[in-house]
Amino acid sequence: MNKSPDASNLDSVFSLSERSKLGEMLRSQEFWIVVAVLIIGAVVGMIAPRFLTSANMANILQNFCFTALMAIGMTPVIMTGGIDISVGSTLGLTGVLLGLFCASGYPFAVVVLFVLLVGTFVGIVNGALVSYLKLPPFIVTLGMMSLVRSQTLVVTNNQVVYDFGKAGDTLLALGSGSFLGVPNVLWAVIVSAVVMQWLLSMTKWGRYVRAIGGNENAARLSGIPVDRVKVSTYALLGAMTGMTAIFLVGWMGAATNALGQGQELQVIAATVIGGANLLGGFGTSFGAVIGSVLIEVIRNALLLAGVNPFWQGTFVGLFILFAVLLERFRSTRA
């Protein structure tokens, strides 16, 4: 029985729609990073069967979350054309302040609020210097990285905090506990990624962020409060870093002045590998999460395969170069 013209047209529309969605998926950087994770997992699983065990998968799920939380916060900063290399030092400062104030007997809720405010304050200072004084974000956050790391050493006096006082049980339960069989920190990543993607995709603030990254001068001329929006992205990253410190210290059971050293490189790498454009204008929170997974899979795979762990930087660097080249290729094709 022959189809009616209307039915044929409808089938054609659906077919075009499906091909369009497939093409969009194949063009997305997130898709290829997922493919890379699966390929690495399959290869390492054959070399080291322990890689695919439930215990190791749980370990990967726990470990990638700390980078992912900050990468989610880094996404809007990079989307505006900025960057923040002080996040590792901010993680260290907020982490040791968390430990010291808990040890001093302050209520846990008060300490958590204080830590989030400290992280936010560092972000606001970075954002204000970049936005209102027009200083290069790399230089500003490089200076802040040194300043904050120095203050971390000052407040700890090079001591490690193990005793968190009355708040210890709550902190450890938050950092290493789970809900419905899922680690608490993974729940934080899921909620943060969904909320951030909603902010970037569905709100005026998200449209402003993309517009600033696309063309800052045009955004100013169109009436967008460029400076305030840029400050808000750095402040949000600072708050996300403070939240990461809470989960990380709770998971480690200690606060050290070495906390967060080198973490800024992993965070930026995860964000860029996940598809954020270093020139601004594009990025997704889900891409940042996927990029964080890839970095942790590489670290874990090298460890289990018996490869020198110093090779991790080589592989991560190659993926960053690949991500930048892929973005350049897409830009020239557009």
Automatic annotation (TrEMBL):
Pfam families: BPD_transp_2
Bilayer disposition of the protein: Multi-pass membrane protein
Keyword Transmembrane helix: yes
Name of this chain's protein: D-ribose transporter subunit membrane component of ABC superfamily
Subcellular location: Cell membrane
PANTHER family linked to this entry: ABC TRANSPORTER PERMEASE PROTEIN YPHD-RELATED (PTHR32196:SF21), ABC TRANSPORTER PERMEASE PROTEIN YPHD-RELATED-RELATED (PTHR32196)
Keywords of the record: Cell inner membrane, Cell membrane, Membrane, Transmembrane, Transmembrane helix, Transport
GO CC terms of this entry: plasma membrane
Lineage: Bacteria, Pseudomonadati, Pseudomonadota, Alphaproteobacteria, Hyphomicrobiales
One GO molecular-function entry: transmembrane transporter activity
Transmembrane segments: 31-48, 60-79, 177-200, 234-255, 267-295, 301-326
